[in-house]
Amino acid sequence: MVRIIIASVLVIVSVVIAGLSVWLDLSGLYYWSSGLTALLGIVVYFFPNMKAFAIRRYMRGSQFKQYSLLYRRIAKKIKLSSNIYDTAWYLVASEENINETFAQFNRVTLSNMPANIAVYHVQGALIWHVKASHKAERAHFLSWLNHVRPKQPINGLLLLNDAFSLIQRAQKVKQDYIADVKAQLESLYLLSGYKIPLHLFLCGVNKLDGIAETLHEQSDLSELSFFLEGNNQKVTEALSQAYDDLFKRLFANNLHQVSLQLDEGFKRKQLLGPMQLQYLKLSVTGFVDELFDFNGLAVPFQLESFHLVESETATQRVNLATAHALIEVNQTLLPVVQESNLKPKAQLTKTFAEHVLPASHGAPTNRWKVWQHGIKQAVMFTSGAAIVFFASWIGWQAYTYNEMLHTEFRDVHKSYKANLDNSAFNVDEPSTLVEPLTLLRSAYINFNQAQLSKPWYALDILTSIERAEHYQALYKNQLSVAIEPSMKKYLEEELFVYLELEDYLKVINVKDVYLSFSNRENKEVVLQYMSTSLLESGVMDDIQTENFIALLNDFYELGYDPVVTNDELLAIVDSQLALQDTNQLMYKYVKQLPQFNRLIDIRPALLGDTLNNTILFAIKGEKSSFLVPALYTPEAMQKLSFVPESEFMQQMVKKNHGLFQVAPTKRELTRIGNYLKYSYINDYTRFWQKYYQRLELKQSLTLQQVMTALTSNDTSPLMQLYSTLRNYVVIPTVEVPDAMSDTNVAKQAPKSLAVKAAKVEKLAKVASSKLDKQKLLEIALAQEHNEISEKIRQSFSQYQLLAGEQEAMRNEYQTFLGQLIALKAWMTNADDDVIPGLTYFKQIQKSSNFDAFSGLWLRPHSERLMQNLAALTVAKTTEHVKEKVQGYLQTHWQSAVVKPYSESIAPYYPFSLKGDDLNLNSLAGFFASDSSVTQFESDILSHFLLVDEQYQMAIFNRHTLISLDAEILQFFTQFKKMQRQLYGQANELQVQVSIKPQSLSPKLNSFTLKSADIDLLYTHGPLIEVNGVWPKDFSSEGLSVTLTDLNNQKQTHSYDGVWSLLRLIDKRKVSANKNTLMLPYQDEAGATLSINGVGDPQSLLNPLFYAQLTVPLRLVQSIN
Prior knowledge:
- The chain is α+β, with helices and mostly antiparallel strands.
- It is 55% helix and 12% strand.
- It folds into five domains: 2-45; 52-365, no CATH class; 410-580; 600-622 and 630-804, no CATH class; 990-1120, no CATH class.
- Helix 13 (431-453) packs antiparallel against helix 14.
């Protein structure tokens, strides 16, 4: 716990040191201190694990050294081959309590040898026996085997088992032993990479009663070894078969030996021995089966052989045949019999040497390790050859390099001189300096690159170091001769030009570059300015500029003496700059930035696509008045930021190095930023207000264009215009990030700790605001953006559709659009009428018929353009309606008045004095009370108002009138008057006619006037008048007047038709205002008579009465 606390304290201290370093801008030493402190805390926390790991590695290394030292001592003592693989290595595994081992004669004894390791040397083979009780050390030993003999750690494993232990019933001990052996085999398999050859030795078979006697007379003991050839699949069968074969051979051989033996006890034991081995078979096969049981995993060994060997220290023997009953009752302590005094013949060492060691060469090897060894040998050989070759190559390169330097230097001198002779080298023209100096620079760079690629050539003992000095001296001298005067003259000209152009911010920056170059300061500033200036002025192209900047950079790097400045020019510059306002210069700089001074054509977004939409609006003013500077767009506002810590302000300070030669304080930058911000807001709002005022309706718009654009298109041009403008004047605000968590610790703390908690919270807020500068900058940027957006929006608050709420804007437009749609539907319905104009005429008679769209002229709109569009729509609609109604009225006038009159009345007498007689029915039809003229007056004229002796009808908003021609009133006045005179008496045409003779020539005897019921005969007698009614009393066929002279010669004048009386009057009337008619006889005065009303123009008997009626061809004043 203490360790954890210490580690936590150290980590916290490191974090505090790092935070203070960032906050107080401390040196880098504190950062290193905080890092080391944190590392120390981590070490303290993980110290136990690190300590255990280090101890394990140390112990392993110590063990490896001990084993390696042990082997070297053994190899030295018994003189082993230097090739470790020439010696066969075997590892022994046995039970802890087994006493069987190799002969002591073969044991290698050394001073200070580990007690748990025994080493035997048998005919050139080393046998390592590591006691089973030291498992950890045994694991180290196995790892060391793989380390020291990677290709073949061991040639095989010798597994020693005691026969007496094998037949005991102590199963737990036996199981632990088998598990230990299997663990060793698996470890060896994982380390070596191949299956370990296993040789199984069953030691102490002479501990079984009769075995020693059985083997005593055997001459060939090789039968006690079974070679299984590593066939793990059928090892049990092979072992069982070999075991049975051994039993048969031993039993048959002993039967022969018994016949020659005299000792009865010895005979019995000879025959008992094979039986004892047969009893042992079950235990052996069971042991082997358990050894091969790896729960389905691959067996990590190959059982090569099985050997029966005798023990040299057998003191007790057991008879398995007599102890069988005890075994069946699980008796673990078996009864023993007397030991044998026969010397063992099948010894362990001898068996190993004769039957196991000869097969040591057949042990498998790790092929991958063999390949690794071969690869290492090849790499070593290749590396040696490469070193020799590289050394030879270096020598050759040194020779060729120095020879090349001499040739190259001569060529450079020659080329440079030739270039100077052939070029117009002039310091007043910087472009003429580039080519020759670039030639020198290329040679200088090539030499330096050659040295970099061959760094050993920079040694003093080689001639190249002298060449380097020579190159540098020549290059530096030529740069000083050309670059210095050229730069001075160029910058002085720049100062003068910008001073004349009154671009004072440029003057300030050029002056700073001029002084920096003169004093060999601010290299980056000078290089950056010259690169930009040379390209913008067109003095050089891109490649020449790049080369000139490289030359200027080398001039700085190689060093030069301070340049003498033009003090008179600087004095003039200073006097002019003293009069300038730096804030205005900075704002001018902002407006001239390339990303802001470009112009954008927003007409496609503002007015619509001319290919797919009807353009309703236009921008008045100059041809370029529709262009918008990029500075006054939301995109520019996103790039602008006047917060002192913002990237824009920092770049502005960096680029205007002349104005900010000393880094400005945060307070100064805040002051400049505020000036720029509010200047930008004022210019932004002023520009868009003027732009909006310049928008107007397009000239020569038709009603169809307006209605189609506003009601048929997917996107309304009006909404597109306002939406586009709204994007520029209503800029969305951004979310301001939270400075700290809103959790109030002081409120949640107990009352006793509230004051302290409040102080802690306050300190935490201060610390957070100091440490998280990036977050504070994000907050400041968001707040500034929202401030600018809000002020711009407030400037347009009087324009509802531009800066109002979206809902209000949508509602007003939907109301306007709904009225337009209603108007369009109304017009479409009216235009589809069978009789053009009839519906319009009927509709305009009642204002309630256009309540759905009367808001277009009754309701004032909040925006000028919408108001103008509504006024244009109403005007065009009124014009259309007026045209349709006038057309209808004129058509109706023609059909109801003009056509009947011109076809049935006007061509006939008395309306036309030369025409045929007018049918009285036609006259009655025209002047009757139910005539088409009267019907026209009732249907049409009744809807007009008589204003100042003119018929008028208002359309929509009463500002537009349909006025009838002034002659219409005269026509209907005269028509009604004539109608009353013609048919005013019981709707019949009748006129009282009085014909009275006045005189008769002496040459005449009489005259007669006859027509139907009228018969007037006058002779030189009393003047008697004749009365009648026209046309009832007159014949429809005509009238005749006969004059008879004294010789009874008659002269007759006939007048045909119903209008014959009027024809008589028209032809024989003496004067216009008299009722007298004169009837001539042979061109002399004949008879005179008077007819009442003939002299009155208003009399029906006067043909002039009918000539008074004139029908106007045009009803309305004008038809557009």
